[in-house]
Every structure is written in C-alpha cells, then in structure tokens.
Amino acid sequence: PAIRAGPVGPVGRPCPPWQSQGSSLGGPTGRSGGQRLDAMxxxxxxxxxxxxxxxxxxxxxxxxxxxxxxxxxxxxxxDYSKYRDxxxxxxxxxxxxxxxxxxxKAITNMTILLQPSEDLPGTIQxxxxxxxxxxxxxxxxxxxxxxxxxxxxxxxxxxxAPLGTxxxxxxxxxxxxxxxxxxxxxTTTGILRLHVNVGGILLTNVDTEVVICCVRLPEESIQxxxxxxxxxxxxLEGMISVYKEPVKSTPFLDPGLxxxxxxxxxxxxxxxxxxxxxxxxxxxxxxxxxxxxxxHMPNIKRSTGETGIVNFNTANSxxxxxxxxxxxxALWDNDAEKLTFFLREGKVLEIxxxxxxxxxxxxxxxxxxxxxxxxTLTVEARSFDDIDQVVRPTSIYQSxxxxxxxxxxxxxxxxxxxxxxxxxxxxxxxxxxxxxFVGSVLYLRLPxxxxxxxxxxxxxxxxxxxxxxxxxxxxxxxxVEMHVVKTIYSxxxxxxxxxxxxxxxxxxxxxxxxILIYNSDPGAPRQSVQESPMVGAGYKVFMxxxxxxxxxxxxxxxNITFTLEPSIVFYQGDVIIVHLYGFMCQYSAIPxxxxxxxxxxxxxxxxxxxNNILIFTVAKNEILLNTQPLKVSIGKETNFRLPDKxxxxxxxxxxxxxxxxxxxxxxxxxxKIGEDKYVIESRVEFEPYxxxxxxxxxxxxxxxxxxxxxxxSTIYIKLGGIVRDPPGTPLGVNxxxxxxxxxxxxxxxxxxxxxxxxxDQDQVLLTVKxxxxxxxxxxxxxxxxxxxxxxxxxxxxxxxxxxxxxLAIPEAxxxxxxxxxxxxxxxxxxxxxxxxxxxxxQGSVAYxxxxxxxxxxxxxxxxxxxxxxxxLKLPGFSNPYENVPIGTQAVPVLxxxxxxxxMKFGQWSAMDETLDLLVPDGYAIYRQMVSVLxxxxxxxxxxxxxxxxxxxxxxxxxxxxxxxxxEEPVKDSPRVVERSFMVSEFMYAPxxxxxxxxxxxxxxPTVNITYDNDIILxxxxxxxxxxxxxxxxxxxxxxxxxxxxxxWNETTATLKMKVPWKEVIPAFTMxxxxxxxxxxxxxxxxxxxxxxxxxxxxxxxxxxxxxxxxPMVGNGPFQGHMLCMYQYxxxxxxxxxxxxxxxxxxxxxxxxxxxxxxxxxxxxxELFDVKIQGFNLQEExxxxxxxxxxxxxxxxxxxNILSPFDSPKSQEVAEFREHVTYTGISSIxxxxxxxxxxxxxxxxxxxxxxxxPPCRVPLxxxxxxxxxxxxxxxxxxxxxxxxxxxxxxxxxLQAWMVDIRMTDPYEASQNPIASRPxxxxxxxxxxxxxxxxxxxxxxxxxxxxxxxxxxxxxxxxVVNTVFKVVGTREDILATDERSPYGLISxxxxxxxxxxxxxxxxxxxxxxxxxxxxxxxxxxxCESDGxxxxxxxxxxxxxxxxxxxxWFTLGILLVPAVMAVLCLGTWNIDMDKSSEIDEDLxxxxxxxxxxxxxxxxxxxxxxxMEGRFMGEEWERARKTIQPYI
Length: 1524
Description:
By secondary structure, this protein is mainly β. The chain is built from 12 helices and 98 strands. It is elongated.
C-alpha cells in the first residue's frame, strides 16, 4: 500500500518494523503499553522521537501551503528515488520461529519461516548470510572441527515441491536446499548464522522454511520477543542486505510450575555397579495433596530386576525431620524405569524447601556410563491419582558422572599369513574409551589358535608397555594375556601390537564373533573384535552331526547317541548346544556315557526344558579335535523321552557352537520317528482386481500342519511366475525395486515379525518369520493374505494346483512341497507356444553322428524368472562338455532375444541326455519375445547315430524351478537321416606313383542326388599334367553327369560333377565312371590302401566322407638318407637320416659344422639305430650297402656278395609303417657307401652312408694309426688313406695347372683382389699365404706351387695354380714328394672331405666345394718363364724342309687309305643269295625231319617267336599298306 514518507533512523537506518506500524504497544498477551515500552531498547526510543520530529516538520509544510498534499508512494515515486534506501529499507516481511517440542528447557527442533522484501542472492563474490540472535537458547550440536567456539547445527530444507515438479529442480527442497548445512552457532555471541548456497536466492514471494536441529529452549519467553533479532549481512565488509530487526513472530513460552533446584548423586558412581541414589529437590511452587514426585532413571536397573516397593531415607537431607514429609516407602516401576515418592497426607512442601531422598545401599545398579548433569534423568510432579501434571518433567540440574567402564571402541586383527594351520604374525589394533593404566590386564581370546610357546613375543612400538614385552598364552582357555606395566593412552590413538609365530586355526568367519577382547576392569564386557579376516573360507560347520535312538519309539525313553565332528577344535569352556524341540526330561543335569563322555564337564550335559536345549561344556584341560568324531550317549535310564514325531534329518533339531563359534545349523543325520510330518492342508488363492491378463491380485494363504512350528521359525513360500509391480517401477526385471518388505494382513498376520514378510523377486520367494513369543501348534489353521496394495501381479497362466507354488518350513522338518490347492489362472494352459530346433543354418541338412551347430528357438506363454531352468531332452545326442558354451547369434533378429546376453553356459548331463538352461537372477525369459539359443560347433553337440523323424516326439522341452511348465514335445525339428555313399571305390591303371593313369569309379548313394547336389571328389596330391579344367567322364553312367564333363580345380584338388537340370540320380543307383589316361591325371607320390585323404561329398546332401575302397600307391622307402657311422661302431651317429635342406649342400654327414651350415641336426655325439624312412614299409624290407660308385641292382646284393657291413640283429617297423629300424649294424671298412633298400621285391636307392675311422678330425688313418698326412701314394677317403691310382701314373715330369675357386676375402671392399695391380701389397700377401698354406696342407714344398694368375668370377676369386715337377728324374727318384698330378689328386680328395685338414684352415675353409675341373698340362715357356699350354712360336720347333715333307705326305697318303676303306665296306654290305629256297620250305612244311636239325630248330623257334617262317602275310601287308 502507498504510505507517506515514513520515519527513518539516523543515516538511513530503519526503525524496527513493529515500531513503524500503527498498532498499539500492547501485544496479544495482554501486557500493558508501559510494560511493552519497558521492553524497548534505547535505540527504539530514539527512533520514535525521530518519527515525531518528522511529523512536526510535515505539519509545518502543510500549514505553509495552507492545503494538504496527496498521498505519495515514496518507495516508487521518482521524486524520492535518491531517498528510497532511507524511506523504504529492505526488511523481512515474514520472519517466524516455531519449536517442537515446546516447553521450558526442552531440546527442540526450531522451524524458521523467512520472506525478505527483496530477493537475497548468494554469489561467489558476495556470500549472503542470515544471522539470528537468540539470547537464552543453547545449541545442541557437535563442535566445529575447525573452530571450537562454533557448534554445527543441521539444517533441513522444508519447502515442498509443487505437484508434478521434480524436487531436484524445485525451491528449497531436500534435493535442492537453499541453505548450507550445517549452520554455525557462535557460542561467544549466541548468534546462529545461516549461509545461502552459492547460486541460491532467498526469494521475496515465497515463504522459505527450514528446520534447525537442535537447540535447548530458555525457561521462558514473551510472545514476539524483541530480543530475538534477525539481519542479513554479506561477506563484503560494510555491505548489509537487511539490517538487524526483531523477529516478527515468536511464540510465548510459559514457564509454568517449576523446580528451583534438582540434583541426583550416586554413591559410588561406578559403572555397572550397585549404588545409593540420592535425589535433592527444591520446588519453586508449593507441593501438597499427596503429590507424587517421580524420578525417571532410564538404563538404571533395580538389583532384583522386579517392580515393587523401595525403602529410602532422608539421612542426607539438611533437616533430619524431612522424612515426615513423605510416605515411608517409594514405588519402583521396572518397565517405565521410574521411582515414585509420595507426600504424606496433609503435608505441604513449601517453596524453596530442599529435601534429599536416598535409597538403600545396593538397591540399584548403574548403567555402563552416565555423563555429568545428564538430561536423561528427569523429575516431575503429578497428582496423587497420577492424572494431572503438576510440574512437567524437568532435567536435573546436577548429577554425578558415571565413568564408562573401560571398553574397546575399536579393535581389529590382521593375519600376515592367512593360511589355515600356518604360522602367522598377528597384528592387533585397538582403541579404548579410557587409558589402560599400569596394573591393567588386556585379554584376547583366540579360539582355535595355538602357539609353540606359552610366552608369545611381541613386536612393535607398543611392546614396551607390556610385561617382559611378551604375552602369556593360556592354551586350555585359548586366551592371550598381556599385563600393562606402562600406561597406554589408548583413548587418544590407535594402539598396534604384533604377536609373533602363532598358529592359525583351520577356519574363522569374517569378523568372527568368537574372537573376544576385554580387560581386567570389574564388569568389563567381553567384546567381539570388530574386524578380523576370514580363514579357511570361513568353513566352520559340524562335518558330522548325527543322532541315533534305541528304541526309536515316540514319546518313550531311549538310548540317545550323539556323533559329532566339528571342523574346528573346541577348547576348555567352549560349549556345543543342541536344540531338541519335543524332547522331554525332568532332570537338568543329564549324565553322559560313552567313549568320549569324559571330554565334557563332570561327564554331564545341561538340559533346559524351557528352551529345549542340551548344552555340552568342554571339560577343563580337554579339547574336541576336528580330526575324529566323538560319541557320547544318554542312557535310557535317564528317562530322556523322544518327541512324538520327527522327519528324517528333521530341520527342527539344530546344533551350534559357542566359544568356538559355529553358527546354528540343522543336524545332518536324524532318524525318522513316528508318523511323517506333513502339511494337512495348504491353499493359495488369487483374487484379481480386474479380468485383464497379469492383473494385480490379492493372494491368500491357508495352511494346517501336523507338527508344531517354533517361534522364530521361517516359512518359505515360492510363487513361481508372480511379479511384484509397485507404481513407478520401470519395465524389466529390476529385482532391487520389486524386492522388499511387504505387509501381511488377515487373522494371523500378527504371528509374523512386524506383520511383514520379505519378497525376493529373483527367487520369487516370500519369506515370513514368526515372532519370538508365539508358536504354531499342530492342527492350528493359519490364515493370512497379501492385499492388492502390495501390487502382486498374476502370471498369464497357471495350472490348477500349480506345482510352481510351493511351501517349505525346514525348521519344522517340512521340506519344500507344492500347495495342495492353488487357483487356476487363465483358461490357457502353460506351454511353449514356440519351440523349434534346427542344426546349422535354418533349412540346412543334418547328418547322424556328426558334430553340428545346435540352434533352439522357443517362447513360453508365461514369463520364466531368474532361478527357472529350461530343460531340453535330447536322446542320443552327445557332448564332451558338462558346461556347454553358448554362442551369439550370427545376425540379430528384431523380436528375438539372444540367450547369450545373460547365459554363458548350459549344463549338459550325459547320463540323462538333458541340456539345462538356468535363467540367472536379475534376468527373465519373457513370454512376448522368442528366445534363441546357439551352440557353435566348437560346443561339440554330436547328433544321434540313429535317425530322427521330422518333429520327433522324443525331443522334449520343459521348465522347472521358479516357474514350472510340464514336459512337452518340441514342436518343430528337422529330419536327421544317414546320408552317404554305400559304395565308393577308386581303381587306378596302372597304380604307379607320379605317373599318368586311368581312374575307374564305382559309386552308390543312399539318397537321391539332384541338380543342386553336385558330386565332389576330394583328391589331394593328384595333378593334371595337361592343365585341363574340363574333364571328360566316360563309363556306363556318363549320361548321368551334365555334358559328361567334370570340373577340375587344381588349387583345391577337387573334381566336381553336376547332375543335369531336372534330372535325379535315384538312391541306391550303382554308378560307373571312368577318366581315361588322355585326360592327363597323375597319381600322387604316396597313397595308402583305402586312403582317408580321398573323400567324396554331395553338396548340401551328403557330407564329406572317405572313399571306402582305393588301392595303395607309392609305397616304399624315401630317397635322400644320409648317415654317419664310425668304423666298428654298432649303429649310426645320425638321429634324423633325412634332412630336407641337405640335398646339394651336405657332403659329409659326420661333420657338425657342415650339418649346421646346411640346416640339419648337428649332434653326432650319440649312437642311434639305423632308421630308413618311407611310406607303408614292411617288416620284411631289407637294407643293403654297396660301393658308392655302383648302382642299386639285385646282382650287387645278396648272401653271395661280400659286404663290410654286418647284417642287422633285428629290425622293427613303426606303428604307422613310416620307418623301419635296423639294430646292430656296423662296418669294418671306411668309406662312402650307397644304401639300397629292398621293398616288396623292388630295390630302391635310399641314400648313402659315410663310414669314418675312429680318428680325431682332421687326422687320417694309415694302417691302423691316426696321422696328419697320408703317404705319397695314398689319398684320404672318408678319413682313411687309400691307394691313389692317379699317383701311380707316369706323369712325374709333367707340370699341371688347375683353377681353384675361393671366396674373395676383399669382396666387401669394392676392390676385388684379382683386379688389383701385381705390386699391390694385399695381393702379394694373398698369393704368399695361398702358396704356403696350400703347401702345408698338401705336405709339399711351397716352391712347387706357383700362382699363374688371378681372375674374378661372380664375387669369387679363381686362382690358376701350377703344380711343378720336383726336378730331374734323378731328383724324382730321390724325393718322397708327390708328383704334380698326385698333388692335384690329393687336393681333390681333401676338397670332397669336409672333415679333412683343408677345411680346418681359416684360409681354405671357404674354398668352392664343387669338384675341381680337369687339370691342364702346362709347360714353362723358355722365352719368359711363364707356364702355358702353348708357348709362343719363335722358330725353334721344326725347320722348313721337314714341314714341307710332312705336308706332301699327308696330301697323298690320306686319299688312298680312304678309298681302300670304302671299297671294303661296300663289299661287306652286298646282298647274298638266300640259304632257304622254296623247295626247302616245302620240305619243312611237309616233313621237318627231311632238313638239317639246325633248320628244324630255326623253324620251331620262328613259330614260338611269332615270325611264321615261309608265310606271305608280310608281303601282302606291304602290298595293301598304301591303301590303308
């Protein structure tokens, strides 16, 4: 509204808003204006005075103008813009405080409502604060970690998001708070500061609501108290958004009737100890009319633990007569934990009268801790009838502190070697609430731990605090004891101590509760160590827990035998508790008998008939081992009676371990007693909300049992196919959103804890747990239901009495079984609407007994949740894996779901021939989508060997587990039938390897073959010498092949034959085909008889299969064997006789360097039997050795041929006939020999063997001695000096030249040695070294070797070397050196033997290994001293006359000799008259005896040879020859 120019304070500071209004000073509380004025501050009074002055000035202005001006809105008027901040300051138009709860001194939540007159934004540059000054209030919050003078109070935004608005985007909601939390309360100024978040704006048009936790209210406060102020400072100094002003609305806090003084003291104030409680009171109002004075003491217990009368006295009161004010007895309420004192009738407790009331000694027990002046102790006064409240509950002003008993606020164990039964250092880290002083003892119980010493060494900085720096290990009790000798301030930091070399138990749970830590303080609790690692996978069970009854008669006494074997060791004081519901005995101490009774305390067990438990306590200094079972019995005479019924292995009987902790578990073996436990009646009924599919429904349960169900038992109800669908749950499984607690309704809903059950959507399991105070008795009907508001949806379909709905109460001995009745859902039965199996690609042909790709498509008409299993029955199928890998689909299809998205394996049972597909938790198979499964060929499903019909009824599918669909046949599956060639035979003419041949084929298919089913022959190794692609097919059935032509593919070695269009080769037709030699086919080098590499197929019809019958080709030993043997040794030094890289490279198989150079196995230091490799070798194959220069021939082998080689002692052919091993072969002679192998009558050259003498390389053998050089008449052959035929030739007076080729050592220098000038130093050194090195090797005089010339040939240097004669004939006779030709022969022999001295030379080892060329005769020319074949003519050979004579003689003599020779030849070739004429032939025909015997023989022989002597057919043939 428009206002006049309002009053302002000095320098524009506004007056408090309540002062600028026209309201009276009296408030709604009814107080007078004077009282209100007294409450004003001096600043407010000055502000009112300023108002009066302004009004007077305005009145003067009005008088001057003699006419009043109109009202002006100074907040918007342009004329007052420069005064706007002074006339219209920013303020809080709304500022309200509210409290809950609301009474004096109460700890309360404070609600604040704010609305500024202008928006107050918070930015990075200018932080916006709201300061609220609340004198008399106390903050209840935590100390700020950075400033101990501040208390942190939690700020809760309280604005609600508008309907349909995202709370995260709304104003001041819990997801989008306006103020930072916590807020800070300054204890020095008493100001609460709220901080506007950066980016937030305190809006002017919205009530901003926040709740602050927590503050303590003052004792009283007036309504709208002006002392409670608010302002809006900022982070910028001097910039204030809203100046301080009173909070506009605060409630009136009525102090009411109160206490002047309250005090409670304890004597002694010791934690958990008996004490005397003294209450001192001083009322602020009179108390009379037998008022009740009530002291509330939560957590303080009466020693007797009972409600009743408590005696007290006033001995500690100031006035000894104060007892007269009260009745002599007080009343203790144990449930409410309050103590009530009653004033005597007619007595009045005056204002300010202080009285102290004290209980008797040891009447009450203190709690573990009470802080000083604790607010939990309160005192109130009520009327005698306990109806009216006289003084509200008030926290005491003073109380004794009860220090907390020394406890462990933190404890952790770490094992450095976490191995069962292993030695380990153990770290203990702990912190206590108070220091551990000298004399304290720290105890650590380590159940199952052991130590080799009773004193365990300690490690770490804290060890000095303990006696002797060791811990005492008490083995029987399993307790580690540490005595403190130096105070540990463990309340200030975490203490770490390490125990060395303890032995871990076999198993511990994670954070095992049986590991205890405590101290020697009276009443100190035994606490479980908070953190400890698992040991042995936490396997703590009773491996054997068995009971036996004799006799097993219900309700009768019996001998009861317990056989127990825990997985851990039990020590002294540990207990085994057996829960035996239904058993009865009148005694509490049960005598034990049997072989192990002595192991338990006093050989008795403790029976609790109230709890139905039998307790076995391990006796002192005894242990229960985990390596052998123990047996104890209860005799029949004890009158321990059996229950009326027990199921076999009844879950109602349970066992547990304490001390050495083993969690409660069912007894593993219990015999059956009495009649069966069963469900008499069980029903589950559905009441759908609508008639639609998958409607929300109410689910009602009803059951009657023939056995009791104990308190705390759990009932499991499986509802297969049911889905919980709370509003807002997205599509999909979303088990975490669908699972959770649900409300139970109905008559027996209160039977269960919190009237709730837990729904697990993954397991489709409803779990309800009974309360601890009620049990279900046999025969009682239990009814409850789940209402529709729990949003359970029905499946699309359910059978009547569907086995998917199941009930189990294992703790009552009732195993899982279906409900006896369940409502039918839908008229459609549960089924697989789609179920299809196919192999490979859809529509492809399948073959029996083959490994195939397996494909399945199916769609159930109900959802199959996680925990359901789809089972396929596949009779005759096989798979080598139990876990069959599931592959992904080659091409995803819209509307189909690939099971590999959530299934990785299927479970195959070879025994049952079933494949199980388990739906994992969190997933489901939906009825709206087709699910597809693909198992690749690598998953190895092999089809049955017998035929499968189309849609074979033996292939079935079903579902069990969390939703059951009964077994039904797979609706669609292909035919699987045997498809093959019954007859498939090849015949080769001739069957000679690597030769052209004629192929004959006989084929008989078992199925029709059409145009689409090409016949393909796979013929690896076959070649076509003519490179033909189109092959002419001959034979009787050539017309059945399109154009009688086949297509040959040399690359794949396949021959394809097509059937003519629209023609069919009927099943079982015998087909005869031929391919003639003219087509150029060549057989491979080797083929087995019925070789498996030869295959035949019919495309898309008959799979590849082996040709059933085919002859052998190419059998025999291989060529290229190279063996190394040593004279007289049995066997060979060659492990692998054939080296693929040896041909053309290797000359000496005995030389390791040569073997390595040629890429062969270089080891020759081990003996092996002689092995000949080949193809289809025979046991009868023999091996023969002949001279290397001979060829393999039958005439060269045999028993009549002497051989230096022994016959083998034995020979053995390999399993696959790929080699024959000959044992015991040795040679008495050295040299190189050819090896000939005889196989099925044929002789094969298989390689050679080098036999060397037993001399160290490069020595040679001479007459049994190993020397360096051979004599002049011998040369080394395979290391043996043999006669050199060339050295015996009469060539001692002839010089010879031979060219020797070597690797050029200077080739890399780009300047070959041969291209250099003759005076080049390197060339001269090369020639020098060449001569002297060669002379050393040949054992010759270096002067006899001369280098005629050097030349370059392809990177090598050719040295033309002249070997000169020794001298004259006399010199030759006198010397022992070789002739020139003998030196060349020696060099040639050494060149061929790579083990010779030549190859030991670093200079000559790179000599060319090819044989030397034929040497040339040379002579030394007299003209220049150079050796040449022909010297230059210089006229000194023959004179002119002699030359002319020889020329004339040659011209005359040669023609005469030729004429005589030609005449003689012509005469020899003249025709002679025939010895046989016509008459002689006639005689022979008529009577052969008329002619000479010689002619008779000739006649007979002509007939035998087909010459037909005397017939004219030859002449006739020549006559008609031109006309043919």
